Amino acid sequence: MTETLYPYIIFLPRSRKQKVLRAIFGSRVPIDILTFSIDKGITEKIYQRDLISKLPYSNKTIIERLQALTELGILEEHMEKSTIKTRAVWLKYYLLSDFGRWFAILLLEEKSLTKNEKVGIVNTAFTSYLRWIRKLADDLGIRKEELARIFNEEIGV
Question: CA dist 54 to 24, 47, 112, Å?
Answer without folding.
Answer: 19, 11, 22
